[in-house]
Predict the structure of Pectin lyase-like protein.
Amino acid sequence: MACPLYLLILVLGVVLQSLSVHSRVEQKGRTCTVVPEGHGRDDSASIISAFARCNKDASVVFLNETYHVERVMSTHGLENVTVDIKGTLVWGTNTTYWINNSLPLGYQNQSVAWDFGGDNVFWTGHGYGTFDGNGQIWYDLANGTSNMAGRPINLVIRNSTNFTMQGMRFVQSQFWTMAVHTAQNVLLEGITIRSVSNSSAPTQNTDGIDTFYTNNITLRNWDVTGGDDAVAPKANTSNLLVQDSHFHITSGVAIGSIGQYPGVYEFIENVTAERIICDGCHHVGHVKTWTGVELGVPPNGGGGGLGFARNVVFRDYTVTNISQGVAVITQCTSYNNLTGDCDTSTFQISNITWANITGTVSNALLGSLQCSGAAPCTDIFIEGVEGLVFYNTTLPEPAVECSNVMLGPGSVTCNGNMTIS
Ligand SMILES: *[C@@H]1O[C@H](CO)[C@@H](O)[C@H](O)[C@H]1NC(C)=O
Ligand SMILES: *[C@@H]1O[C@H](CO)[C@@H](O)[C@H](O)[C@H]1NC(C)=O
Ligand SMILES: *[C@@H]1O[C@H](CO)[C@@H](O)[C@H](O)[C@H]1NC(C)=O
Ligand SMILES: *[C@@H]1O[C@H](CO)[C@@H](O)[C@H](O)[C@H]1NC(C)=O
Ligand SMILES: *[C@@H]1O[C@H](CO)[C@@H](O)[C@H](O)[C@H]1NC(C)=O
Ligand SMILES: *[C@@H]1O[C@H](CO)[C@@H](O)[C@H](O)[C@H]1NC(C)=O
Ligand SMILES: *[C@@H]1O[C@H](CO)[C@@H](O)[C@H](O)[C@H]1NC(C)=O
Ligand SMILES: *[C@@H]1O[C@H](CO)[C@@H](O)[C@H](O)[C@H]1NC(C)=O
Ligand SMILES: *[C@@H]1O[C@H](CO)[C@@H](O)[C@H](O)[C@H]1NC(C)=O
Ligand SMILES: *[C@@H]1O[C@H](CO)[C@@H](O)[C@H](O)[C@H]1NC(C)=O
Ligand SMILES: *[C@@H]1O[C@H](CO)[C@@H](O)[C@H](O)[C@H]1NC(C)=O
Ligand SMILES: *[C@@H]1O[C@H](CO)[C@@H](O)[C@H](O)[C@H]1NC(C)=O
């Protein structure tokens, strides 16, 4: 029987297409090695192909070479896969492409360059496997514009259970280095992040990691240099443990901002940050919510969210030059940094402890606790801070400024009221 012409054309088309989607993967048994194209050519198709072929009971290997990523990648549904990175992945600088094509994070209208997910994934960078986000072009482009649309998070770990990453370096991230969205039993250890601007533009929004809908994440042995929060748990984060880490010139661990979606109930529960060195950090720990009044839309606007943040401990810190207050709560986050409505949030903050902190503070501010009149904070503790030296000695004792903090047994002693705009 004669083959219909349209079928021939169809088959030919498929063959041509598969030839044009060039990918270089060497497969031996259950190990897929991504071989770089070289000459600066895009390796994203090869990487996606490797994860498609070695997606179960397998390994995906990156050689000690440089790989170029010029396109968004989504690699999901992995099961019992080892990711072995011996080289460097460098992200492309075509900001027009990324702004138009970055994949949705599914929160805050943020977007991502690589969306990754699977169960029982073991990812190792051996202490030298590197992601280079080529972030300078983004720092210069944004130049202080907060949360620029389409500016991508380098990597999101999504829909994953039992995920371990060890020994990875992240330099010059485009935006936040990492997000974790909908995941549990995640261990990320031996992670070095360094995002530094070499121009007059700041590295704003280069958070280390933000978490959403996650339970049981451990971050251990992190070293973070960046222009924003090192670690920022957000909506529905529970049982987050941050240990044995060193943060440089960041906001350290910042709980939130949360309460950004009007009428939506969210929580942050059981966060412990311990044995941390913070050099030049803004705070030891900051808990922050949006106001109760919706102004604008996410990422840079919002407010009016419901819920709670509780059982948070920042302990065993060694600090130098804390610049904006050791223990800080604000319920005033607002659209494009507008001020006001600071007493309107009904987001409930309770049981927050800052304990056993030594080192130096560049002003006299131990506590700056601005809670909302609509939901005063309860069980706020600051203890074991005798080992802190405050450079500003004009005050008889370190300042703890409070607004709407309920005092109870053992709780913080306030010695100043705040003026709130
Ligand atoms: C996971 O995959 C490896 C091969 O990479 C295999 O040896 C091992 O048996 C698998 N584990 C399970 C639980 O299937
Ligand atoms: C990677 O290769 C470079 C040379 O191309 C070499 O200098 C370096 O030691 C290698 N790194 C590792 C960890 O093997
Ligand atoms: C999450 O992963 C599981 C297991 O791989 C899969 O069955 C499910 O479809 C994924 N869910 C979503 C929303 O992608
Ligand atoms: C950048 O990406 C855009 C959109 O994908 C494309 O039109 C343009 O040709 C690219 N520019 C370069 C220099 O590759
Ligand atoms: C995660 O690991 C635990 C403990 O090893 C195991 O019991 C569980 O089945 C794993 N979960 C998935 C989704 O594989
Ligand atoms: C939490 O995750 C770790 C892996 O980081 C795992 O070993 C542990 O069993 C998990 N805990 C619970 C209660 O599932
Ligand atoms: C960032 O903006 C400031 C103020 O407009 C300007 O002076 C500076 O040159 C800009 N920096 C870069 C790298 O574009
Ligand atoms: C938080 O920890 C407490 C014990 O300290 C536990 O009872 C509670 O279930 C935990 N919350 C979540 C969401 O796991
Ligand atoms: C307060 O939080 C700490 C640390 O998570 C926890 O151990 C303690 O049980 C909490 N207290 C109450 C009353 O829930
Ligand atoms: C927001 O206001 C604070 C305090 O006035 C200031 O330090 C910060 O630079 C402002 N941020 C932006 C994005 O304008
Ligand atoms: C602070 O240190 C003291 C003395 O070692 C200890 O009793 C206390 O439990 C610590 N506080 C916290 C919150 O870990
Ligand atoms: C010291 O603190 C006082 C009161 O907060 C303030 O007015 C003064 O500017 C501070 N001095 C320095 C050197 O920071």
Observations:
- The chain is about 10% helix and 50% strand.
